[in-house]
Specification:
The complex is a heterodimer of chains A (about 290) and B (about 300). Chain A is built from 15 helices and no strands. Mean pLDDT of chain A is about 85; it is low at about 70-75. Chain A is an all-alpha fold and about 290 residues long. Chain B contains 13 helices and no strands. With about 300 residues, chain B is an all-alpha fold. Chain B has helices at about 1-40, 60-65, 65-100, 105-110, 115, 120-130, 140-145, 155-185, 190-195, 200-230, 235-240, 250-260, 265-299. Chain B has one domain (about 20-299): MetI-like fold, CATH 1.10.3720.10. The model of chain B has no long low-confidence stretch (mean pLDDT about 90). Classes of the chains: A mainly alpha (about 290), B mainly alpha (about 300).
Chain lengths: ~290, ~300
């Protein structure tokens, strides 16, 4: 590359600094503002222009947790802690089930040759791109009939549409990274398929399994549209719970802001742990 | 000999045995879909279950004749095009920015991915708070410094379309940027040395070296973003609900309305399957494009 003249280089440096600042502001400002909003009282919320300096209050969070009727802080939705627990139950349940079914399936797809193998792998992959409504309408009708509507089990089963294809493809990509020779050595030492799986594949891909579990959990936590249609007040997760602060009469802005912070927090913490694998997770192992 | 053949048969059955639990769950996914596909050929209306009747492709034909369907299809395709162009364009810019020398790059990268990790519906609610249409809304307040009059974000047709696009872009820009950044960092160095020897300037290098090498990855992110934008639901549901005046109603929202607002399950399923077919067609075209792009770079 030809050397740029000094003034152009300085201009370029300035442009880069400006772009980086804009990128940071664009990313961080919404979090900052929502956090601020969640600490405001209702009268502060309506201030024109929006206030930056104010006496922070934890009333919104208190209303979220306790759902007390406190004058204008009244939360019509006292059950946010329940929603949080629901999110945990459904997400953990869905990941555990996907792991139980996904580990042997991924092992078969990574290490065995059999007819229809690639077709099957593709069928699992295709769920990544399916519009949820095509499944949720019949699921809703079936669930109403068999009593799975508004149950944790029903949601855990529905969430398999999210986690099972993801788990199988992720684990398959991690399993395939293990050198074939190690497996052959174990076979010579007298390991059957179960021995290969439990003594070679699983221990060697432990980090990959951890990443798959965490990302699978996060995708479940993010899910909104399946529980919107298949859950009821007793089983709503935080995503559906947060939208309950919008009603025909009013929007409880402060509590909604607090709810979004609470709903996003586990994700922000977990994402730090899986930073390097996020792309791999979102493309189901296609892009390393 | 008999036991040897039994062992061989067992070895053949083993992968299917391992797959059995997953296949069982897969069957549990395909069954409702099959049932739904059948319902799409009926007039299933939850409020009038006694009128249930097989009607062939009437739902499909009727849907396609509806004025709202044409508008929803137009919005679906238009939004997808806009989202892909904006997000891939900006994402490439961000990737290039982070690929260069930049102080605090690791911190910026770590912060940048956060919008990608939180639930899309939560993203939508966060922006809904910031996009309050009065002057109490922070976004309008910030825009006033640029001399821009308060925007009626979710109340006007253009405002609501732009709002959905902004929110979707905030959530998904990191995805595009991360993939392209990873691709940039894995590019071979030889073509760049050759370009330098030939005396190519930065723009020529970008145009004739970086872009072609990057093209399979660009097609890949276009594919992922197009698939997701065609099906966007959470953000629209949490902000505009398809309004105002159906301006942000896409095929997905329309299918939801048929199914869960009017309980016309047959028609809702027909609409779902039309959307599914659209996704399949677009993904098929993009996979072909991807194959061609990756062939070109491997030569």
């Amino acid at each position: 590359m030809r050397a740029l003249p000094p003034w152009l280089r300085r201009l370029r440096g300035l442009g880069i600094a400006l772009a980086a600042t804009l990128l940071l502001a664009w990313t961080v400002f919404p979090f900052f503002w929502i956090l601020l909003t969640s600490l405001k009282s209702p009268s502060e919320m309506m201030a024109i222009p929006p206030s930056l300096v104010f006496t922070p209050t934890l009333d919104n969070y208190a209303a979220l947790v306790m759902g007390e009727q406190r004058g204008q802080y009244a939360s019509s939705r006292p059950d946010f802690p329940l929603f949080f627990v629901n999110s945990l139950i459904i997400s953990i349940g869905a990941v555990v089930l996907s792991m139980l079914a996904g580990i042997p399936a991924a092992y078969a797809l990574a290490r065995f040759d059999f007819p229809l193998k690639n077709t099957l792998a593709f069928v699992f992959m295709s769920f990544r791109f399916v519009p949820f409504i095509a499944f949720v309408i019949p699921l809703y009708l079936i669930y109403q009939r068999v009593g799975l509507y508004n149950t944790h089990i029903g949601l855990i089963l529905a969430y398999q549409l999210i986690t099972l294809p993801f788990t199988i493809w992720m684990l398959r990509s991690f399993f395939m990274e293990i050198p074939q020779e190690i497996q052959e050595a174990a076979t010579i030492d007298g390991c059957g398929w179960l021995g290969v799986l439990t003594r070679v594949i699983l221990p060697l891909s432990l980090p990959g399994i951890a990443v798959t579990v965490i990302l699978g959990f996060m995708f479940c936590w993010n899910a909104f549209n399946y529980p919107l249609m298949l859950a009821g007040r007793q089983t709503f997760p935080v995503t559906v719970g947060a939208i309950q602060f919008i009603s025909y009469e009013q929007v409880l802005w402060g509590q909604m802001a607090a709810a979004t912070i609470v709903a996003a927090l586990p994700q922000l913490l977990l994402s730090l742990m899986v930073q390097k694998y996020i792309v791999r997770g979102l493309t189901m192992g296609a892009v390393r | 000999m008999a036991s040897a053949s039994r062992a061989r048969r067992r070895a053949k059955a083993l992968p299917f045995l391992l797959l059995a639990p997953a296949l069982l769950l897969l069957a549990g996914m395909l069954y409702p879909f099959g049932l739904g596909a059948y319902y799409s050929l009926t007039n299933y209306w939850l409020q009038y279950p006694n009128r249930f009747r097989f009607i062939g492709f009437d739902n499909y034909v009727n849907l396609m004749g509806e004025p709202l369907f044409a508008r929803a299809l137009e919005f679906t395709l238009g939004f997808t095009l806009a989202a892909v162009v904006v997000q891939v364009g900006l994402g490439l810019a961000v990737a290039l920015l982070l690929h260069g020398r930049l102080p605090g790059r690791a911190v910026i990268r770590a912060l940048m991915i956060l919008p990608l990790m939180i639930p899309p519906v939560i993203t939508a609610l966060m922006w809904k708070i910031m996009m309050a249409s009065t002057e109490a809304g922070i976004l309008n307040h910030l825009l006033s410094f640029l001399g821009i009059a308060p925007v009626n974000w979710f109340g006007s047709i253009n405002g609501s379309i732009v709002s959905v696009l902004i929110i979707d872009t905030w959530g998904n820009l990191p995805f595009v940027a991360l993939i392209l950044l990873g691709a940039l960092q894995a590019l071979p160095t030889e073509p760049y040395e050759a370009a330098r020897v030939d005396g190519a300037g930065p723009f020529d290098t970008f145009r004739y070296v970086t872009l072609p090498l990057l093209s399979p990855f660009i097609v890949l992110v276009v594919m992922f973003r197009a698939m997701d934008s065609l099906r966007i639901f959470d953000v629209i549901y949490a902000t505009t609900q398809g309004g105002p005046n159906d301006a942000t109603t896409n095929l997905h929202i329309m299918a939801y309305q048929y199914g869960f607002q009017w309980y016309q399950m047959g028609k809702g399923m027909a609409q779902s399957i039309i959307l599914l077919l659209l996704v399949v067609i677009v993904s098929f075209l993009l996979i072909r494009l991807w194959n061609r792009a990756s062939e070109r770079t491997s030569h």
